[in-house]
Design brief:
Strands 1, 2, 3, 4, 5, 6, 7 and 8 form an eight-stranded mixed sheet that branches. Helix 1 (2-16) packs parallel to helix 2. The protein has helices spanning 2-16, 37-44, 57-66, 85-90, 92-97, 121-130, 150-157, 169-173, 204-207, and strands spanning 23-27, 49-54, 74-79, 105-109, 137-143, 179-181, 187-188, 209-216. The chain has nine helices and eight strands. Helices cover 33% and strands 19% of the residues. It binds S-adenosylmethionine. S-adenosylmethionine is lined by residues 4-5, 8, 28-30, 54-56, 59, 81-83, 109-111, 114-115.
Length: 217
């Protein structure tokens, strides 16, 4: 989880810095912690606008209290389910905070593995990405089965621990179909643009997550 948060910080730093993105849609926000999306983005560009979305009411209560942001930018909170992208896209708080005619970074950080095949996560991502103009970005981190023993994977994917699915590298990469991956492409989470991190870095087996960022074309 620590490495996942470090990826979030590096991804937002890249998006707000190198890519010049000023609008973020962060779905699966989680409980506020250090270096939340708007904090990282507004440190680089105070005018950054961020919409947080989660389906856990407790997360939203804490987010509203703690994720207040820079007055020259904007933060908003939407109580909605990732599996219902059209409800997210038409939510009044989103509509009044983000200009969907201008580039947006869609952040799906450690959330898509909670969406099983029965809810067609690929269609969900396609619906969200197709609402964004070219020049937008997609950032995803996701737990993988690739480094875990088959028995553990069968157990975790079997539904006993709730809905969701660990995915292989190829299954993860499919989320980026139709978009253009930025360097270094699909990599173990801890390896994504990690040049500034202290050494030694964790091995791929230790995080068992993939990450990538792509450009909407
Ligand atoms: C592991 S946390 C990740 C939090 C944060 N993105 C991070 O990377 O630190 C997953 C979050 O996704 C939310 N979540 C899970 N399924 C969801 C869904 N179907 N729709 C919206 N949020 C969901 C959970 O409530 C939780 O806050």
């Amino acid at each position: 989880m620590l490495e996942n948060r470090r990826f979030l910080r590096r991804a937002v730093t890249y998006l707000a810095g190198t890519a010049g993105i000023r609008q973020f849609l962060d779905i699966g926000t989680g409980l506020p912690t250090a270096d939340n999306t708007h904090e990282v983005a507004q440190r680089i560009a105070p005018s950054s606008r961020v919409v947080y979305v989660d389906n856990d009411p407790l997360v939203l209560v804490h987010a509203r209290a703690l994720l207040t942001g820079n007055p020259s930018g904007a933060t908003a909170y939407v109580s909605a389910d990732l599996r219902d992208p059209s409800a997210i896209l038409r939510d009044p708080a989103l509509v009044s905070t983000l200009d969907l005619t201008r580039p947006v970074a869609l952040m799906l950080i450690a959330v898509l593995h909670f969406v099983g095949e029965e809810d067609d996560p690929y269609a969900v991502v396609r619906a969200l990405v197709s609402a964004l103009p070219p020049g937008s970005f997609l950032a995803i981190s996701h737990a993988t089965s690739d480094y875990l023993p088959p028995a553990v994977v069968a157990d975790l994917n079997g539904g006993k621990h709730g809905q969701g699915r660990l995915r292989t590298r190829a299954e993860f990469a499919r989320f980026f179909d139709g978009t253009s991956l930025v360097e270094p492409g699909v990599v173990p989470l801890s390896e994504w643009r990690d040049e500034a991190e202290t050494r030694p870095r964790p091995a791929a087996e230790e995080t068992a997550m993939y990450a990538a960022v792509s450009r909407v074309v």
